[in-house]
Write a structure and sequence with these properties.
single chain; alpha/beta; five-stranded mixed beta sheet; 14 helices; PyrdxlP-dep_Trfase_major; Cystathionine gamma-synthase family protein; Cys/Met-Metab_PyrdxlP-dep_enz
Length: 429
Amino acid sequence: MANNDSYKKSKIGEHSLKPETLMMSYGYNPQLSEGSVKPPVFLTSTFAYQTPEEGEESFHIMAGRKPAPEGNVGGLIYSRFNHPNVEIIEDRLSLYEKSESSVVCSSGMGAISAILLAYLRPGDVIVQSAPLYGGTETLIRKFLPQFNIQTGEFINGLDESEMLSSLRASTKKGRVAMVFIESPANPTNSLVDFAALMRVLDIIEKETGHRPISVCDNTLMGPVFQQVVPQGIDMAMYSLTKYVGGHSDLVAGAVCGSREMLRPVRATRGALGLNLDPHTSWMISRSLETLSIRMERAAQSGRKVAQWIAENPYRSAKLLHPDFIEDQEYKNVYKRQCSGPSSTFSFVLDISKAEAFRFINNLSIFKSAVSLGGSESLVCHPASTTHSGVAAELRDLFGVSDGLIRLSIGLEHPDDLIIDLEQAFKATF
C-alpha cells in the first residue's frame, strides 16, 4: 500500500502507541476503500496501473533492481508477490516484534523454507539448537543434506562454551552460514541465551571473517511475551498458525527483521509462490486485534494448571513450564529475555507410551491434536506425533521421551481444565 503518514501514525506527540492500540488501524487507510472501517478482502489476482511507466517502476522495485520507497515494499503487481491484506498484517506484526519489516508466508514451514533457500548454498553449514519443532528438524537434517548443505547442533543453549565449540567444529565442514534456534523450544521449553549467542557469533566472525546469520523460531512466546529482533537476532520466524492466528482455523507463517535482511526472503517468497492468500491474511488481521488479551489470559490459566500438575497427589511429574524450571541459569535468561511464560508447556511422567496414550484417552475437555496456541486446549504426545520423524536416539538426547505430554492451554476456565486433568490422573494411575 502507498506510504501515508496518516494511517501509519504510531505516536501522539512524544507518546508511542502500544501494539494493542495499533492493531486496530495501523497500515490501513479507510478512505482508499470506500470508507470501510475494517479492511475488505482484496480478492484479485492482479492490479491495474495508471500508466505503463508505473508498471515498469513497480517491476524494477519488486525485482530488486531499484530500492523501494522509504517505509514501503513497492507497488502492487500480482497477488503472488504482494496484496493489500498481506501488507497490512506485515506492518502490524512488525510493530509487535519491534522489527523494521516482516514477510508473511503461506505456512510456518514456508517461512522457514524461504529463509533457508534465500541464504544457504551448497557447501554451507547450518548449526541448529536442539530440539526444534519436528518439521524443522526434518527439513534441516534430511532435506538440506541432499543439496550438500551440512548441519551441526548444540543442545544446551545456556552453555556459551558448548555453543562456541559446536560452531568451531562446524567451520571445519564448510562456511557456517546460519544458526537456527528455537527459544523456547517445542516441546521442552528449553532456552537459548541470546546474549551468549551474540558473543559466540562475534568470535566466529573474528576467526573466519564471516558472521553467520541468526534466526530464532519465536512461535511459543512471541510476539507478546518475547521479541527477539531487538535482542540482536537477525530474523524472527513465526508459525502464525499458532498464537497469532489463535483459533486453529488457518495456516500461515512469517519472518521479521530488517528490510535489507528480508529482501532476499521476500524475493524467494515471490519466486516460489509462498505468499499468503488475501482471505487468510484478513483473518490474521482480525486475530491480531485480540492477540494480547488471548495470550495473557491463556498464560494465566496455564500457570494455574501447571501449579496443579506440580502438586498433584496421583503421580509425580517433572514440569517443563518456564515458571517452574528451577535451574538458576535458566531463570536468569528467562527473566532477561521474556516477559511471561505463554501457555504451552509439557510435563514428564515415568510411564510407558501405552500409559501416556491411556491418560490422553481419559481426558474430556482437552482435544488430542497437534499444533498449539488456539482458543481450545490441546494435548499432544510429541514422541509419537510431531517429533516421530526424529530418530529415537536424538529424541532421547533432547528429552522428548514417551512419558512427555505437552499441553496447550486455551481460553476455557482453568478450574474446568484442572478437573479434567484430575479425573484423567485418577482413571489412569
